[in-house]
Amino acid sequence: MSLPIILSFGLAIVSGPKNDGKTNSDEKPYRIDLSGTTLKVKAGAEGGLSLQIKPIEGYHVSAEAPLKISLTGDGLTLAKNQLGHQDADDPKSAAPRFKVAFSSKAKGERVINADALFFVCSESLCERKTEKVAVRVDVSP
């Protein structure tokens, strides 16, 4: 084995994979914020789901790439079941927020499920992401 081959192999082991310092391998470059959602509502009254995709610093949600959020509500009537860029408060936002009204005639614990597909981008890379979240809503008489 020649010396140049050994040196290049050693350099590859020492340097390892490139890490841009933005995230750990277990850390997502975004979070889903549901903080504006109505968690308690009276039967027959209207509540609201608030869902925001919040990228960490150095990342943004692509306004050009596909974005689709499918909503289902166990025992709830949702104003919309499918969301896209056009449904965001600001369709060009780097951290889009979506608001959807809901109601229920039946009391009890209900669940809103959201199944999201979107692209999170840095300066050098866009990644397709999927996320499933659920929100419990208490419907009282």
Please supply descriptive tags for the structure shown above.
141 residues, mainly beta, Immunoglobulin-like, 6-stranded mixed sheet, 4-stranded antiparallel sheet, 9% helix
Question: How would you characterize the overall build of this protein?
Answer:
- With 141 residues, the chain is mainly β.
- It has a single domain (26-140), classed as Immunoglobulins (Immunoglobulin-like, Sandwich).
- Helices cover 9% and strands 47% of the residues.
- It contains one helix and ten strands.
- It has one helix spanning 3-15, and strands at residues 30-33, 40-42, 46-55, 60-61, 68-74, 77-78, 82-83, 97-103, 108-121, 126-140.
- Strands 2, 4, 5, 7, 9 and 10 form a six-stranded mixed beta sheet that branches.
- A hairpin with a 4-residue loop joins strand 9 and strand 10.
- The protein is elongated and about 50 Å long.
- Per CATH, the architecture is Sandwich
CATH fold description: Immunoglobulin-like
Q: Tell me what portion of residues adopts beta-strand conformation.
A: over 45%
By CATH, the superfamily comes out as: Immunoglobulins
Pick out the low-confidence regions: 1-25
Shape estimate: elongated
Topology as H/E string?
HEEEEEEEEEE
Quick one: biggest sheet? Answer: 6 strands, mixed
Helicity level, as a percent range? under 10%
N-to-C span: 80 Å
Q: CATH top level?
A: Mainly Beta
> Structural class from helices and strands?
mainly beta
The overall strand count is 10
